[in-house]
Write a structure and sequence with these properties.
Layout lengths: L2 E3 L3 H12 L2 H6 L4 E8 L11 E8 L2 E8 L1 H7 L2 E5 L1 H8 L5 H6 L4 E4 L2 H7 L3 H8 L3 E3 L6 H18 L2
Parallel strand pairs: 1-7, 2-5
Antiparallel strand pairs: 2-3, 3-4, 5-6
């Protein structure tokens, strides 16, 4: 199984490809229509010099977008923006925590959107996490010094290219 680095276009593209090829995900999320962006807060030790946003847009179970967003684009297009530290997102993606738990405890914060509306989306959180973890993920705190240096260079390049 290929290893994908966290918070990179490669990871999102492969996750979208797998989602589209997996009717089970589409069926589980058929009642969901939501545009959710996730803010990964800056963590220089992870190579994230500033916050980065990515999002999952789903319309009746159909994935319409899984990509990175600029701040302005996220605020214009998303229904919700959720924010957490990279370490908190890692725990969710490694399934060490449940979304609803960390949200209610305030470790994932709602920056934009209705809390009531988000509570309707929340039961689908674990399925969305399943969609994003069909590949083996490597997080920056698991990288060697050389891998981290390459990752930092890659992150700077794709962020510049994408304007995010």
């Amino acid at each position: 199984m290929a290893i994908y680095q966290y918070c990179t276009p490669d990871w999102l593209e492969e996750s979208a490809r797998i989602y589209d090829a997996t009717p089970e995900f589409q069926e589980k999320l058929r009642k969901l229509s939501a545009k959710v962006c996730y803010r990964v807060k800056a963590e220089p030790s992870w190579g994230l010099e500033k916050d980065i946003l990515f999002g999952t847009f789903v319309d009746s179970g159909r994935l319409t977008r899984l990509s990175f967003f600029s701040e302005a684009e996220a605020r214009k297009e998303a229904d919700y923006i959720l924010s957490a530290t990279p370490k908190e997102w890692k725990k969710l993606l490694k399934k060490e925590n449940k979304f609803i738990t960390v949200f209610l405890l305030g470790r994932v914060k709602l920056e934009m959107g209705s809390k009531v509306g988000l509570l309707e989306v929340a039961p689908h959180g674990n399925t969305i996490i399943d969609c994003l973890t069909q590949v083996e993920l490597q997080f920056p705190d698991e990288m060697s010094a050389e891998e981290l240096a390459e990752y930092v260079t890659y992150v700077k390049k794709f962020r510049s290219d994408l304007g995010v």
